[in-house]
Specification:
- By secondary structure, this protein is α/β, with parallel strands linked by helices.
- The mean pLDDT is about 85.
- Helix content is about 35%, strand content about 20%.
């Protein structure tokens, strides 16, 4: 239970992540956010979390005004009147991504440690694809299942049922990268074993384009 609580603290973003990981998230997402903002495009982030992570910690949206945040969790601080860093308050929606109006399109959709806890992984990724304009990008950073047969994966499989209870439905062993590639047809993904983030240290940094 100690290990499960430690994992829950990290996944609910109540604890701090290693600086190297946070820097890699910034490096992965910032160029796309800046490009879309410069062109006046629309940005959607799903699964913002309890700490308004992308704005408050990574400060990714400086200068961007057309941002929508989605998080159905009643625990998310985005519903507590958090002040946005730009000149305009973002649109905030308390619904799962699968219930959004697909007629409303975005140039960039982001998720950071979110696909682990959506109710249906495939349906959620399909909804993301439908929400993008043609040529739009889904940029994601997600913790995923380790390789089959490894000690890390065995640990994930054993601990995941407990994790789902203590961390808001989070699964430690989801094949999120494979599902994104199946839905989008292809994706560019980098996998890293992030130090100091056990048991969520198997992380992918990915991009998928809507054709």
């Amino acid at each position: 239970m100690f290990l499960a609580r430690e994992a829950a603290t990290k996944l609910t973003r109540q604890g701090s992540y290693p600086d190297a990981y946070t820097d890699r998230v910034r490096e992965h997402l910032r160029p796309m956010i800046a490009d879309v903002a410069r062109k006046g495009g629309r940005i959607l982030e799903i699964g913002v979390g309890e700490k308004f992570w992308s704005v408050k910690e990574a400060k990714l949206y400086d200068g961007s005004e057309d941002v929508t945040f989605v998080d159905p969790s009643l625990k998310s601080n985005i519903y507590d009147g958090e002040v946005f860093g730009g000149s305009k308050q973002p649109k905030i929606i308390r619904k799962p991504v699968t219930e959004l109006n697909v007629d409303e399109k975005f140039d960039l959709v982001l998720s950071v440690f979110t696909m682990c806890s959506v109710n249906n992984l495939c349906d959620s990724v399909q909804a993301i694809e439908q929400l993008l304009v043609p040529g739009g990008t889904y940029a994601y950073v997600e913790h995923v299942a380790a390789a089959e047969g490894t000690g890390y994966r065995i640990m994930q499989d054993v601990l995941s049922p407990v994790q789902e209870v203590v961390a808001g439905g989070c699964h430690l062993n989801r094949p999120s990268g494979e599902v994104v590639e199946k839905v989008f047809g292809e994706s560019m993904t980098t996998r890293r074993r992030e130090e100091g983030m056990w048991p969520v240290g198997e992380v992918i940094y990915g991009l998928a384009k809507k054709t």
